[in-house]
């Protein structure tokens, strides 16, 4: 009985590794979808342990701004920089793409806005520093500026972005 459980567990683990999409596959799929839908790609590098990553994703899915992000971007994610016990969660090739896009030593989340051909339009750096999951008024204003230059279909509403992204003091 124990052997059967071990074998089943091994097969499930192996199939998840075999079926994991590579970074190249993720980008190709996102770029193709962006081309068809006349959008740009909003690529976020994140990790399971990263609280700011979760906050960024939650903010983008907030009902107040979700339709804006959905209208303008194909949101896609690559998991990188996992701890040893969770390395299996990483996107194969994600670290290499993160490095190529100059995000290796920027911390997480690190995000990049690409056009449908893969050209970098904007990223989460301001003056060489990663704003990651923007939360201060200054960081959110920088995000808004980047969104204004990369929106293709629906104009950004700065007040809504500020309402969702600026961290409220308790």
UniProtKB/TrEMBL annotation:
InterPro entries per the record?
Answer: Thioredoxin-like_sf, Thioredoxin_CS, Thioredoxin_domain
Residues annotated as signal peptide: 1-20
| Segments traversing the membrane | none
Taxonomic superkingdom: Bacteria
The UniProt keywords, alphabetically, are: Redox-active center, Signal
Asked if the Swiss-Prot or TrEMBL record annotates the protein with the keyword Signal, the reply is: yes
Give the protein name, as stated in the record.
Thioredoxin family protein
Annotated Thioredoxin domain ranges read 12-149
């Amino acid at each position: 009985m124990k052997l059967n459980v071990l074998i089943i567990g091994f097969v499930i683990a192996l199939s998840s590794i075999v079926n994991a999409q590579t970074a190249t596959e993720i980008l190709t799929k996102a770029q193709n979808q962006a081309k068809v839908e006349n959008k740009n790609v909003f690529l976020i590098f994140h990790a399971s342990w990263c609280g700011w990553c979760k906050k960024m994703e939650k903010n983008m899915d907030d009902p107040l701004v979700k339709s804006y992000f959905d209208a303008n971007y194909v949101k896609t994610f690559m998991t990188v920089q996992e701890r040893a016990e969770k390395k299996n969660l990483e996107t194969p090739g994600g670290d290499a793409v993160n490095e190529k896009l100059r995000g290796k030593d920027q911390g997480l989340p690190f995000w990049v806005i690409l056009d449908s051909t893969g050209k970098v339009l904007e990223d989460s750096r301001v003056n060489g520093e990663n704003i990651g999951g923007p939360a201060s008024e200054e960081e959110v204003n920088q995000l808004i500026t980047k969104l204004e230059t990369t929106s293709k279909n629906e104009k950004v509403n700065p007040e809504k972005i500020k309402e969702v992204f600026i961290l409220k003091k308790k």
